[in-house]
Structures are given as C-alpha cells and as structure tokens.
Amino acid sequence: MTGQPANANLKGAFFLDEMVFHPSPEFRKNANVQDARIYLDAEENWLEYWNKEAEKLHWFQKWNFTLRWEQPFAKWFVGGKLNASYNCIDRHLHEGRKNKAAIIFEGEPGDSRVLTYQDLYREVTKFANVLKDLGVKKGDRVSMYMPMIPELPIAMLACARIGAVHSVVFGGFAAGSLRDRINDAGSKVVITVDGGYRRGKVLPMKKNVDEALKENDTVEKVIVVKRTGTEVDMVEGRDLWYHDLMKDALIGCPAEAMNADDMLFILYTSGTTGKPKGIVHGTGGYMVGVSSTHRMVFDIKEDDIYWCTADIGWITGHSYVVYGPLANGATTVIFEGAPDYPARDRFWEIIEKYAVTILYTAPTAIRAFMKWGDHWPAGRDLSSLRLLGSVGEPINPEAWLWYYNNIGKKRCPVVDTWWQTETGHIMVSSLPGISAAKPGSATMPLPGIEVDVVDPAGNPVPAGQSGLLVIKRPWPGMLLTVYNDPQRYVDQYWSEFENMYFTGDRAVKDKDGYFWMLGRVDDVINVSGHRIGTMEVESALVDHPAVAEAAVIGKTHEIKGQAISAFVTLRDNYVGSDELVQELKKHVAAKIGALARPDDIFFTAELPKTRSGKIMRRLLRDIADGKALGDTSTLANPETIAELKESYTD
Ligand code: WTA
Questions:
Q1: Which of 175, 319, 355, 394 pairs as cysteine with 384 (C-beta 3.0–4.6 A)?
Q2: pTM for the complete prediction?
Q3: Which atom of ligand 1 is nearest to the CA of 504?
C-alpha cells in the first residue's frame, strides 16, 4: 500500500461539512423506508435482517442456514435454491406485470424499443434454448462483447436461466484485453455484434472478436447480433447469426434450480498486477443484495421509470441496469449512446421523452454537464425526476450541488452510493426518505453493513482523521472468489488486516459518523469512474520497442476525476519527441482500449526510485499534478527529478 490518493475533494468536503440536505416531508412520507429504526433492528440481528430481505425473492427451495462463514470464504443462504432469471422475469408474469415495460431501449441513432416482461420472457427463453442447442451446459462460461442493446441483458438472463456463467467484457476494450478475458474464463461461446455505434461512427466489434480468437482454443461458437449492418467475415462452422438462430427457437425453457452459491457471473476488474481479476459472483447472496439495495436506495415504486446510465460492461450495469431493477419488477432504461451525441442534451432529451423518474449516473458525467453549461438541461422538461444517484468515484461538493440544483431542481434527494465490483451491491449510501445528505459524503453504511476506517494496524481512527476503509462482516453480495485463483482472493482482500476485508480505499469518518471517500490507495486509477491498473498500462508501454521502463500514475483531472500520466525511459537509439508521445498513446489504446490512453507521457532518463528499487509514485504524482514542477506540459527533466527526490522519503 503506497501513496496518497490523487484526489482534490478533501478540502471542499470539509468546507461543506455543515451543509445538510433533508428529504422533503412529502418524499419522506412516501418513501419505501421511512423509519430509522431499520438501522438498529439490522444491527441487533443482522442475519435475521438479511433473512427477511431474502424472503422477498422467489426460492424453489428455502435455505437452511443464512450464512456459513469460513473466513474469508462465505456461503450465503446455504441449501437454498433459486434462479436469477426466474426472479427477474417469470415471477412478474404472475404478479400482474406481464404487460409492464421491463426494458425501454433508446438506440444511439434515436431508434427505440420497449420490451414488456412478457416480451422479455419470450426472448430470454428462446435464447436459452438456442444456447442449450449449441451445447451450453450449467457451469459453462459464455463471454459477451456487446454494446448497450436489449440482446445483452437477454443473453445474460438466458445464461442465468440454464445455469451458464456469463462474462461481459466492456465494449471499449481492445482485442488484446478481450482475448485475455475470454481465455481466462475458458469460454465456450462468445456473443457479439457486427458493429457498435459510437458518436455516429461504427466500432468493429466482430472484428475485435476475430482478432481476439486468434489465440484461443476454447471457443466453439460465436453468435453475432446484427446491429449496424456492417459487413463482417463469418467463419464457417464457428460463427452464427443471432436472428437465424432465434427464428425457429422455441418459447419456454425451464429455469434451472441453482444452489445459492452457484456462480452467476464473472466480471473482470483491474487489480494491482497486470493481469485482470475475474471477480466471481454467486446467485443467492448477490440477488438478495442487489434487489434489496435497489429497492431501498432508489426507493423504487411500481410506476417509476428508472435509468442507470452505466454500461452493462461494468458492475454498475450488472447490478443496477439488469439484475436489481428486473428483480424488483421495475422499468429499466437502456441507452446505447453517449451523453453528447448528437447534442449535449441527449440525457435530458431522454428524460423528457420517457418521463424518467430516477436517474443514476457518475460524477464524471455531471462534471462534463457542468462544463457544457446550464442551458442544456434548462431547455428540457425534467419535472418527472424525483430521485438522483451518483456512483463510481467521490463526487465533489460542487458537482453534487450542481446536480441537486440544475437537474433535481432542489426537489430530488441525491444518493451518493459507494461500492465496488467486489461488493456486488451498494454498501454505503443514504436512504433517501431518512437520511440527511451532506454534499460530497456517501453518508453511512446501509443497514446490516459494517464499514469502518482504520489505521494500518487495524485500529479505528478517531473521527475526522483519514484512514483505510474496511468492511468488518460478510455481506450477501460479496464476491465468492477470484476466478481460478482463490489465493489471489485471499491475498488481495483478506491479508492486509485480520478479520477484515480491505477495500483499497482511503476514507474519513466525521463526528456524525458520515463517510467521506477519498479514492484508492493502491495502484489502481479511477478514470471517469473506470478502474484501470497502473501495471496494465505499464505492460502495454514496455511492449513498445522504444520503451525501456514505464511508471504510470493517476493525475487529478477536472472532468475525469483522474487521468493517466506515464513516465517513460527510452531504450538506446530512441529520443523522445511529440511524435513518439502520440505513437505511445496510440499503442496503449490499441493494446488495452481507448479508456487506458494516457493523457500525458513524460520522458525521463531515469525513474525516481527508493534505494530498495520502489518507484516513488508520490513524487511522480506531484510532478504530474504540477505541484513539484511548474509547467507540466514540458518533459520532466532528469536533474529536476534527482533534485526533487531529495525531498521525498517514501
Ligand atoms: C470508487 C464501481 C467514492 C472507489 C461501483 C471504489 C467511489 C471503486 C464511489 C470501485 C463513491 C465507487 N464515492 N468512491 N460513491 N463509488 N467508488 O469496482 O474507489 O468499478 O473502490 O465499482 O470506485 O470501482 P468499481
């Protein structure tokens, strides 16, 4: 664990400590959770609390034990049997939601599609039969590399229905990243599209799959959804069109009774090594956690139009675009495009078009909206909104207030939700009908959840002091393990402290018990709410023939929260130039994906290291942030680094 979070929120946060926002009496009166005793009740008997939440799902067979805890491996709802797809679909057909919109889809070009729960049932069961016919069995892995179109949740739910494990790979990853994730999962089938829309252009997604599969020996079939009409090469015997397969598929497919701890999905996330971690989530605990938190935090009601803008390729999309809302029989909006295409009011246009009531988005988007100007949201009717959410990184108080004033028009509570791919669901957040919000604070742990801030020895730090964020007891949606690497699970999360899960985040708890999240303390950068491992980017850089050594850090960025800065030493015969900077940026984007493209690349004769050979990242961060060197647009000069080193001790 090294360094300080590159994050500028601390000052603003404390400045606003005394600024408190209470929910309106009307919101409070109608809220799903109105009584603060829920916290005490859950504290008194937290297992019983989760039992009650679990009873709200449909189980084929009830569990015998709520939790079997053999640290660090938890088994939730032992003996229980259920199916995630049944809970997201079939249950609602019998509960009066057959004709209710399950998914409202808004395509980038402006096309739109509504799937009722009955439609979803038909599409999912048909596709489940397609997968079965292709030989996909319980426990088999299926990778998906798709844009935000209804076929993605359909494919996920079809896997869940037959007990296959899905692994969704974010569509912005390049072929190499996709290959690593398909290979690690050992997938039998890949589902993709001919092309994906991106700001009016077409991304060649099928082509990336073809490239990725050049070094693969597990994939038997590739299923291609036609989205853009782009021409693609179909490999004889391997590649199949989705629409051909669906034409004759039968409607109706029994939902497999899964054990509560059977795998539901794998989702890869960046860690502190170059190799991404396959975070494994189970069925019972995960479904209880996401449905319960979605109901409470978003105060979901029968006639809400709920929109979470996250891509399904990330955990927020899994839990709060797909599984949480559908388990609660809600209407979930899926948007394929970008917030500024064709114009910078696309989000507000969608809210107006569908009368969205709940909006869940990321601070990076909010900061971009602020910069684009108040007139964009002001020109649209946002009066349908009643609740706003934020996720992915600390929200600076200025952005919080802008969101509250300009989007929520001072009517809508804002819930700032802290959680991780690993936690599966929201852990720290206000409950909008109860809590008073402080802009910039994620407020408090949800009922039944125990989170704390400790020093490196594991002792709680006094109020107002920063420390490391830990989770002190198991929670239902916790990751089961790291796929194929249980030792990494133990080392990564359970070895820093005895009896506590280490989040990798730093935080402060104030005198009122409110949590202020301060960013990562490990070598993970949070760019626009997306986690990127410094090691991944460093490996991509040293893969270029010009690069001898590379160190990558996160630099504070006005919109993205953090941006990537790279410090590079060159091999003999290479000299640093603007052309080489451009080439290296392109190289990283081609290796990992555009999201990992460094903002700055500095050439230096040496990387500043401690005597034991550890890179002095704090020094590099200060250089990149312009704290140590005046003008960061120039290349870092080696003498300056040598001089600066003197004043750093890590
Ligand atoms: C950060 C995204 C402050 C944090 C759901 C965490 C946040 C990492 C917040 C997980 C928040 C997420 N306030 N920081 N409300 N939400 N983070 O796995 O550093 O993509 O560890 O999960 O994002 O990112 P991940």
A1: 355
A2: 0.93
A3: 21
